[in-house]
Amino acid sequence: MARNTATGQWNGTLKAGSGEMTVAGSTSPFSFQTRMEGAEGMTPESYLAAALAGCYSMALSADLEKAGFPGQQVRTTAKANFSNTSGKWAVDSMDLTVEALVPGIDDTKFQEIAIGTKAGCPVSRALASVTINVNAKLV
Q1: Which helix (H) or strand (E) holds 137?
Q2: 26 Cβ neighbours under 8 A, 6+ residues apart
Q3: Which CATH architecture has domain 44-138?
Q4: Is 55 helix (H, G, I), strand (E, B) or coil?
Q5: Which residues are registered as beta bridge partners of 20?
Q6: DSSP one-letter code for 71
Q7: Over the stretch 29-72, which tens digit does the pLDDT of each residue have?
Q8: Which H or E element spans position 60?
Q9: If exposure means fewest CB atoms within 10 Å of the residue's CB, which of 26, 59, 97, 137 is most exposed?
Q10: What pLDDT is recorded for position 136?
């Protein structure tokens, strides 16, 4: 079984402090301003989006191949929607924009597989409480 480790650290007070997250030896700083005020930079939600984008792309590639349509490229952009609409900050939805180069498949079959992949992707399943929207197109 694969085990993946990441670390997070916060130093100081909420608004004046700063943090860093480390994954696979790469460290990304973050702050209250990047997370809550839209300043440029990484956030914990960025890592969720990256995890979902990578996992979904790989899973869709596998599902297309299983269906007899091996793809040449699957590119997924994920947007984590982080808000305080319920009185508590949460990632309430994720929007996936998918572009795939898949010879020989028609759009109806592609859409069927793309939507089905959402339910089978391991990161999608880990985010079961989050609404995941998929906008997929062939290129």
Answers
A1: strand 131-138
A2: none
A3: 2-Layer Sandwich (3.30)
A4: helix
A5: 9, 29
A6: -
A7: 999 999 999 899 999 999 999 999 999 999 999 999 999 999 99
A8: helix 44-66
A9: 26
A10: 97
117 three-state secondary structure: helix
Which phi and psi angles does 56 have, rounded to 5°? -65, -45
Would you place residue 4 in the very low, low, confident or very high pLDDT band (cuts 50, 70, 90)?
Answer: confident
Unique residue bearing structure tokens 């109806």: 108
Residue extents of the structural domains in the chain: 6-36, 44-138
- Tell me: pLDDT of 77 over 90: yes
Residue type, 3: R
- Is the pLDDT assigned to residue 126 strictly greater than 80? yes
Q: Cβ(45)–Cβ(79) under 8 Å? A: no
Residues contacting 10, CB < 8 A, separation 6+: 17, 18, 19
Tokens of 35: 């997370």
Return the DSSP state at 25: T
CA-based torsion, 97, 119, 24, 95: positive or negative: positive
Q: What length is written for the chain?
A: 139
Whether the per-residue pLDDT at 105 is higher than 90: the answer is yes
Phi, psi of 9 (to 5 degrees): -145, 140
pTM of the model: 0.92
Other CB atoms within 10 Å distance of the CB of residue 103: 9
